[in-house]
Automatic annotation (TrEMBL):
UniProt xrefs under PANTHER family: PROTEIN TRIGALACTOSYLDIACYLGLYCEROL 3, CHLOROPLASTIC
Higher taxonomy: Bacteria, Pseudomonadati, Pseudomonadota, Alphaproteobacteria, Rhodospirillales
Top-level division of the source organism's lineage: Bacteria
Keyword line: ATP-binding, Nucleotide-binding, Transport
Signal peptide location: none
InterPro entries: AAA+_ATPase, ABC_transporter-like_ATP-bd, ABC_transporter-like_CS, P-loop_NTPase
Ranges of residues in domain ABC transporter: 9-246
Any matching Pfam family: ABC_tran
Protein name: ATP-binding cassette domain-containing protein
One GO molecular-function entry: ATP hydrolysis activity
Amino acid sequence: MTDSKTPKIRLKDVHKSFGPKQILRGFSLDVMPQESVVIIGGSGTGKSVMLKCILGLLSPEQGEIEIDGQPTVHLSNADREEVNAKIGMLFQNAALFDSLPVWENVAFGLIQGKRMKRKLAHDIAIEKLAQVGLGADVGKMSPADLSGGMRKRVGLARAIAGDPDIIFFDEPTTGLDPIMGHVIDNLIVKCVKEVGATAISITHDMPSARRIADRMAMLYQGKVIWHGPVGQIDNSGNDYVDQFIHGSADGPIQMELLKL
Ligand SMILES: Nc1ncnc2c1ncn2[C@@H]1O[C@H](COP(=O)(O)OP(=O)(O)OP(=O)(O)O)[C@@H](O)[C@H]1O
């Protein structure tokens, strides 16, 4: 058990390079239990790399990542599996298997990871589909026959299927129209609350970020250069944040393309 003052997720001075390319250069961030933090930052700044480091898919060459106060960077495979079993994930493209019916996509982690009996996993999948507003009839369909918004709902149902402590949302509204994006944001907020999870999201969609974040953190040149409650984002006093949230081509952030 951990107390409420222990961050659910702590990244301390994380460095990650690929050859000569330094992507994370001292990334530090604490995410408190049941907090929803959105990471913003330009394309290619390392937001996905940061999530992959937390999941153990990439190994930082310096720094530490703690979950519930426990260091995770050098875990054995078995311990890593145990940590990752606490984490749900909604991928950018929902990453559904078209060869399996919707319910089995939702139940995938329960059957494969938790070795749950199919009947029980099926019933939980139907319950989770209901939580995201989809009926049992959708459970029998192929993901290939669903609209983009429905696929996102199914991805969300799968992310919450194992009642995770932590959920990652990777660009949850990409590819959706603004109204469906809003609906998915509301569902994300509702589901995260119902499960009692801690959430980290990465997105370029500022209206979505404002809806789902308690706090935002801006990544620039491998570090968190500003973080604060979502209500302070418009008065951050940080020129980089201002440029980013207004999507302005002029300002201190010089995109690689603009240098050409
Ligand atoms: N396995 C890898 N090998 C080499 N380079 C990589 C690898 N993974 C990521 N990178 C590089 O790291 C940089 C950051 O990538 P990342 O996907 O984290 O960016 P991002 O901030 O999530 O971008 P976007 O918002 O466009 O999705 C990019 O330059 C990318 O090419």
